[in-house]
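Re-running the complex after MR caught last week's input typo. The corrected sequence lines follow. Everything else is unchanged.
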Amino acid sequence: MPRKKLGNMNRRTFIKTSGVIGLGVAASNFGVPKLLRAAPPTIKIGSVQPATGPLAVIGVGQRRGNQLAVDYINAMGGIKSMDGAKLELLLGDSESKPEIGRSEADRLIKAGAAVMTGPFQSGVALAISTLCEQRQVPFIMDVAALDKITDKGYKYTYRVFITVSGLLNGAIKYLKMVTEQKGVMPKRAVVTNTADAFGKGMSGGFVKFLEKSGLPIEVVDKVQYPLGIHDLSAEVARIKAAKPDILFPVSRPGDGIILTRELYKQRVELMGIFGPGSPGWYEPDVIKALDKLIYYVMVNVPWINPSSQVYQQANAAFQKAHNRYLDTNSAYAYTGVLVIADILERATSTDPEKILAATRQTNFTNHPVVGGPVQFDQKGNNTGAQTALIQVQPDQDLLKRVKIVAPQEFVQSDKIVFPAPQLWKR
Amino acid sequence: MDATFTIQLIIQGVLLGGIYGLIAMGLSLIFGVMGVINFAHGQMMVMAMYVSYWIFVLLGIDPYLSLIVVVAVIFVLGYFIQATVVNRIIDYPEAMQVLPLVSIGLILENLALLFWGPDHRSPQTILSLQSIWIGPIMIDVSRLVAFVLAIFITSLIFLFLKKTNIGKCIRAASDNRMGAILVGIDVNRIYNASFGLGAATTAAAGVLLLPLMPISPHMGHDFTLTAFIVVILGGMGNLLGALVGGLILGIAELVSTLFLPATLKQVVSFSILIIIMLFRPQGLFGGKK
Amino acid sequence: MKRYHIFLSLILLILVVLPLFLDNYILGIFVMVFFWAYVGQSWNVLTGYTGHISLGHALYIGVGAYTSTYLAQVFGLSPWFGMFAGGVVAAGIALFLGFLGFRFGLRGVYFVILTIAFAEITRLIVSHVEALGSFSGIFLDFEPSFWNFQFSGNLPYYYISLALMVGSLVAVYIIEQSKLGRFIVAIREDEEAAQALGVNTFKYNMLAIAISAFMTSIAGVFYANYIFYLHPNSMFGMSLSIELILRPIVGGLGTLFGPLIGSFLLTPLSEISRAYFAKGGLEGLHLVLYGIVAILVVLFMPKGIIVYVRRFLDPLMKDKK
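Corrected-run output:
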């Protein structure tokens, strides 16, 4: 175990020295036939995602997105400023639990991860961001939305995804747009959410933002249910009793299906369903399972940019490998690694300080998601992150049913349907 | 509060309660005969749901029609678990019995994840979206069918235990293990059959639930806890008690949403549980202790 | 005995100097080994010695973690003092649970379910208390200092958890040797017989559950300041309760060294298997294997691994006559 001797040597100095040695070797090898030259060093990226547990369906997709980007960068010649160094993805499984996420992240850092990414869940993100601060390893989150994570002012934490307040601003903006454009205004609303950190933060925030927005929509009831619920009949009966015109669900994968079927069966009359920003409404499984019932659902969400070259190329590769399309979360996982590669290219080193310096200078445009260039503000949030408004609309092809209806430059369908026909009259 | 809303909740509670009763009956049977608590009960149910789901997706056979096949498969699974693991731990102190059964739950749950992935799967069967309206009150057809079948299956099991030879042997082994051995009953095999039967019962419940809710590998644990509550309510080892306990819990859970957030409804069930254990440990209808 | 003392002192000495040769990650694994050994030992005080099974011990971890963190965040009280407050609250809850359980004569399965119900109810209530972060949980700020019980590297955590483990060992040893310990074991062997002999079983059961809860809650304080995040589902949930009983059962229930041996074996095992299978496509396999190992140990080594360890060590440790 030669590595053990490094015990009292700081990990950073180790990487620094090995980097220097690596460069030295590369330099002295000029003129030596290519075959004999040492392979360029690999740079390890640690990715902790919820690959098991209730969010596993997303976590597995995230991993695939990360891996796809790593393969892409390597196929394009690795990190050119570092002698074509290849990226290597180290995988960790948070099992959807913050404490496991933390110990997994620690394991990956030990295994040599120069940069960390992940972890989808805000709770896990907080645990890892603290760890990265302790271990002095840059943490570039692909997905995780709670504002709190970057509010702590940690030096090593950055996020490519949008924040909850960013999501909420988008939701109100699009809600105003739709009601103005259509000339109809719902009066009574019910907000539902899953009882977890994200669900509660989102729905609480949404109610506040809605009050401030000046829209004459009154939230008449708030319905909260546990994550991973199997039966929503009582909750929907309660929604029905509140007589809402519009429903604002903050859901997780799985509950969208139960909720909609129950709304159908109990004949709850609604002008429409408008998601302020959550999964559960656009996944191919959900679209397929709900078929006509999910038509005209609108969701405000950070979304893929299907017309971009990057997306088309990545999506083709993803389809080929996993037989499903690159959804928004996986696309953000893909973007996260592209951003990291871009940062490494400019840092020209795996020294954490240099990586941080390069991170602050980021201006990355060539990504597959809706939004402007990736740039980080003081807190470490991506100022280019933006949401789109999507609506599920009838289409022969199952995979083409989700359409971007706003913002203008990304629009796929300029026809917004609102109010929507009742679920049982379709 | 809105009267329609209240009646609606009670009806849904009763229908759900019938299925709770069926799930719990398997647990009660296993406890009544062997004195072990099956901590993997909910996970077994999820296994049944997956089997049924795949038969539906791959062969296009509706869950109600494949019921017998699924029940048979899970019976074999239960038989196997009893024969390989539970028979060996039956004389252990209770603390040592807990761990293997919890572990079996862990194994089943993660095998499901390994084989079928983490997706929520939700087949739309013929009845999934059907409902009957009586004035303003809605009755969910798949729930109603599940309820009726649950009652029917419960009666079948009663008849089986009362009338058939194996049933009588199971009851004998349950009442007096030594006595059963003395009269020449192969107790281990009877135990295997009982565990299989308990598993099969929960499998039937799983199939009935399939049209009502999406399956995912991690949903078993909640149903294990639900089954515990129902069984304590009705009396450990009391099969009829399990059915009535299921109905009570179903109604209590749904009606509590009238005055409590839905996320707190389990507090109601657990409180009922504690009160029953303290003041009527034999359950409402008597049972083994 | 003498040789055993020398042997144990030697192991302790090794553990004290070991960090000089280890990096942060391996230190972290040792921290978890000591932590689970400590929690297992705390659980062992109740279940191993009295025979009353608790499957809701996460409750006390959660109470310790939440109490000390709340006091630290609202009143700026150091977790070093908050842990005693947490311990007292945990012991109070445990005494209430114990009173119901022992007074009403809930045995076996019924006691198990009572402990589960208490933990679940607490989990749900904490999930609805805004001051405790409700569903969002509490995020601890990272401000390393001794006073705050927070440190940059794993080294301080290593020594604190080692001290906890050794402390619990000594405490349980003292209990075992005392009158209390002998009565408690008598209760486990035959509660009614003990009662007939005039042992106040209620009193000793209550003492055991209070001590167990107090010790467990201190683990919660440690956990909070090691993980920096508290969530009702993970702090009070049943998976934590299950996780914490695995090691003492595998090591040897009701024995002084069982929880330690179990933890030294299982904690690295779970760490390694997770690391090994963490690549794509095999999600969940490590938990399957974990379950299989646990079943095999219970089936084929029902008295725990400690029996085999002793069979190996006893001849070597025999003092010369």
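None of the earlier attempt is carried over here. Chain B has a mean pLDDT of 87. Chain B touches chain C at residues 31, 37, 85, 88-89, 92-96, 98-100, 102-104, 106-107, 109-111, 113-114, 118, 217, 221, 225, 228, 232, 236, 261, 263-264, 266-267, 270-271, 273-274, 277-278, 281, 289 (CB under 8 Å).
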